[in-house]
Task: structure prediction
Amino acid sequence: MVDNYSNSRGEETSQEVSKYYLLQPSLINELIRALRDDGYAVYGPVVRDGAIVYDELESASQLPVGLRDRQGPGQYRLEERGDGAFFGYVVGPYSWKRFLYPPRVKLLTVTSRGEVTVHNDWNGKMAFLAVRGCELAAIEVLDRVLMRGPYRDPVYSERRKNLFIVAVNCAEPGENCFCASMGTGPEARSGYDIALTEVLGDGVHYFVAGARTTEGERVLEKIGARRATDDEVSAASSVMKRSLTLFKKKLDVNGLKEEIYGSLESPVFTEVANRCLACANCTLVCPTCFCTNVEEVTDLEGKVAERWRRWDSCFNVDFSYIHGGSIRSSRMSRYRQWFTHKLATWVDQFGVMGCVGCGRCITWCPVGIDITEEAANIRRAQEVSAT
Amino acid sequence: MPRARPKIAVYKFASCDGCQLSILDLEEELLSISERFEIAYFLEASRAVVKGPYDIGLVEGSITTPHDAELIKEIRKNCRFLITIGACATAGGIQALRNWKGSAEFMRYVYARPEYIETLDKSTPIADHVRVDFELRGCPINKHQLLEVLAAFLAGRAPNIPNHSVCVECKLRGTVCLMVSKGIPCLGPVTQAGCGAICPAYGRGCYGCYGPKEMLNSESLAKRFLELGKSREETVLAFRLFNAWAPGFREVEVKA
Result:
């Protein structure tokens, strides 16, 4: 379903990873340093305000080593793991969307003298460290929508084109993760330069790094990583086999689109609306939600007008405002719109589901509404009405 | 200055003056405001009064006395655009807490000679008494939002004053949700944006200063507060603050 992943850095060496390298924990710092030396601004996981968020990294000492994120519907807590794992957590409240598709962007400035300035002068170079399989899929979804579709977004495309991605394979899924159901994880499939698998236990701690692009190989060679042995590669592969057995959440996508299309008047949506706050959190934490609002602001003197773009949400009434009023005034219609778009209409529109199974909307919903449960409820209601 | 500047009048009813201070707090912008507008009536700033009618009336405060209720009608007649500013003017303010109990008993406790006090039983927003053209929320208002309303007035466009939740502002600025990550009750999901989500950025739950967001779901949030360990009474009190009497907040009762 999710096909044609492609990363823009270097050439993909083949369909599969061609070369595996071995990184001792100390080499992670070298990796960050090497990328910075190459002119990349490196972003990766750090702890802030009791959560793991993505921010600029200068060294590996900023990484949330030894922490786990315990997640539930509407709940997130950091805990000590006690094993010194570098990547022993899953995903936090903010996704990479923040860097590729910033929350607020000034698009243009117009003066009363008729001077127009288009602000698309970003020319940086970013590297992301510890991108999970679901997040790679989310970036691929955004590529389809914002870069490869008929409406190419220059803001996204400029940031995306020089992106270097170090993926991390998830050794343990989180409580709200269902990437295995969506075919996006727990192992990075494609769309990265390097993918790390952390092998930890029995007195060993190392990372097997699969290089998928020539640029990925070059960086690994540069930091002096040696090639991994067959045993080390097979240990990493065992980690990932075990990970697949640890999933607690799933979403049955088989025929789901048709089920949803047959359930647009389902009482399930009305019931969700009793709990839904229409606060928009689910859409803002979602790594694929891309809706924005464009605002024009003028100054008091009437000399300068600016056009700004900021993240918006289908849960806000003004979002669906057209001449004469809002299309979706009720919470029910807004939840249905979002749910239906993520799991059904997105497929018709972009050829792929809008949901990648990261579980953020479940964790960061203040009242813990669970998209996997609601999908199951829709199915159950359909089955009941069919009998 | 060749063209006539629109005249602004600023009025005060039952309130703490904080919103008027927000106007004065526009320090750097005050000069350009006074170039584009004539500040014709603003007793907090100047005794000099220019006669009406006025193009814009900014009204702070709630209606709490029979005298207020008459005066606001006169003000309405005197202003082309009437804009209410702040939680008192838009929702009745903190003083609307008396709306649940009536004022007679409170007056016995507060005043030595309560018979001298002439007051209404309820503190009510301006819009309950006269037609209001625009409501600017907040306790106090955000001075940048006020500037936006004035700039929009001059440009003849609608002001960009979103009515979505405070959560949107937290997400835009990158604050980690307190309710989810720390279990701290927060009114953000039911409260209209405008402050820039200041409190959650400093580790405190939202107090609801900007009043109810559109299509809010207070009962669902109240239920969540109970799950987080708050009592029903504490939960109700969280909603009973500056915007206690605002529809959407005031329905949250001790008995659900």
Notes: Chain A is about 35% helix and 25% strand. Residues 1-10 of chain A have pLDDT under 50 and may be disordered. The longest strand of chain A covers residues 41-48. Chain A has two domains: 19-102+123-244, 256-291+312-386.
